[in-house]
Amino acid sequence: MNPPMNPPVPVGRGVSAWWLRVAVAVSGAAILGIPLLERPVVGLAVLVGLAVAGSVYAPASPAPAAAIVGAAVTVVLSGDDPLRPAVLAMIPAVHLFHVSCGLAGILPVHGRLHLVALRRPALRVLAVQGVTFVLAGVAAVLPTGRVPVVVEVFALVGLVVIALVALGPWREHAHTRGDGRSAGPGATMEAWGEGRRSGS
Amino acid sequence: MTAPGARVRQWLVGRRLVRHTGWRPTDTLVRALGAGFALVVAGTVLHQLPLVLIGVPLLVSGLITPRPSGSPTVTPVRHAETVDSGGTGTVTVEVRPGDGAAFTAVRLPVTGRSGVGPVHLLPAAAGALRARIRWGHWGRSEYLRADHLLASDDGLFVYGPVVGRVAQHTVLPPIEPLPGASLPPRAAGLVGAHRSRRPGDGMELRDIRPFQQGDRLRRIDWRVSLRAAAARGGALVPGTLHVRERYAEADADLVLALDTTVDVDTDLARWSELGQRPDARRGGSLDLGVRAAASLAAAFLRQGDRVSYVDLVNARLGVPVGSGRRQLELVRHALVRSGERVTGGGEPVLRAGQVPLGATVIVLSPFLVDSLVDLTARAARRGNLVIAIDVLPEGLLADTATPWGDAVRTILLAEQRMRLAALADQGVLVLRRDAAASIGLLRRHREARRGVRR
């Protein structure tokens, strides 16, 4: 059964999709700059900087993943305290970088962004950050020192379970197409970005 | 039982298909699960809590997002196929995003502009999206192509992009208000809007004269007749009866002849691109000609005249003489069709059969070729009142890429001036494209020529 239809929504002008790229650049600058404030690791910072620049240019590419991993390694190398302010600042910065890249990847750069569309991702980011900081709080009160082998084994088994769950989305499903028109091999994300006619 | 080779082939086809159809994972999902998982594992193994804490939000956001289901649909609602240039309207698409979709990215017009517009990123909700659009330049144009892509939270899964069906419409040329002007009447019909010079059954008094054989009795003016009888002793004898004679009322015909051999704008360097564009250049000679023709047709049809349209290159695109509101629509549609078929070639022709006897002919052209001058002069020699409206855009810009640019421009303008002067010598009224000012001169010109023609 089809869901009930809402009343017609007037589509306004929105704001330029460039603002999403600006958000990517700002959050990318944050994940690049926060570790540098502690201890400059120049070589890694250059690589992360290149990856951030690549993310601004092509947010739907492997560049953001490289930037995130590089920034995480940089922050590990920049200090010893695992819960120092720089680490706590990096947690939301990396998440915002990830989310802004995700949204910028589905909207062509010459598109229009309607701010009402950001409400749901904002709430979602807050919820996930809440979970993460609860985890950080638990980690802060746990005793430090040598971890028992049993706990290590449980952790690794848990990771395997998580890995199996994470593989779920890659299961292939055959889906029917929406309006009977094929997106077609030519209807790529690149063609979408350029607004070209593509497909059959 | 399926052979192993066939199963592998089926699996490969399925792999390829899933990349292009239905809901499918994106780089963002790979990043969330891959990078998130890698950071958490590395942090656990290496005992580096920062890696775990940075990786957890990514991993959690990937794990809590289910794969959306269903088949989203974005369906445009049909709209009028013919609209008026400069007007506004709304276009609507109905969206059924399916379960799990968080964003709808759909190509829609921007409020107050024309064209299919950019892609808008909106929240996914079942319902109609409505955009206000301004119908822009006249001609056939696309106004809606609802290309769409639906995405789940954070853009982890996408459906599409799907190319939307193209919706086209005809934007009719605008009608600018022009002051009315009289055309020479022609007794083509029994009734009309213009006073003819001939006697007839109209309303306006022409003369009072003695009764003649064949006059209708109801035309007798009894007051004058009795006065004449009284002057002759009171007897109503032959020679005392008088009748009131009235003018006939007749139709007037206007022939709008549009030169579609060329479409040139102010930039001389771009004149060579003629024929490479499917639509008329904005502000170009064809645009000016079409707008003037539509306005003239509207002005004269409104006052009851009969108007025909002649495409000087594509005779089949013409509209026979007619009157009324439907005739205006026919002429405007024909103007749009003419605007699509400018190829930069063809010999302009205006046959005598295309011009009704006594009709006024208005030739709209930039007069860049001599054949247009010959054609216009021949129409004038046939006895029609002919008006040439020059639609060459003002302020021509020389081609700066060549040292001869200024010289070419000067020669071109000089030649055009000579052509217009030659037309004026042939008795053709030559006017600039400002049709509103021009049309008021019709009457003056007609009166100036009246003694010559009649």
Automatic annotation (TrEMBL), chain A:
Keywords: Membrane, Transmembrane, Transmembrane helix. The lineage of its organism: Bacteria, Bacillati, Actinomycetota, Actinomycetes, Pseudonocardiales. Residues 175-200 are annotated as: Disordered. This is Uncharacterized protein. The chain crosses the membrane at residues 15-34, 41-60, 86-109, 121-141, 147-167. It comes from the Bacteria. It comes from Actinophytocola xinjiangensis.
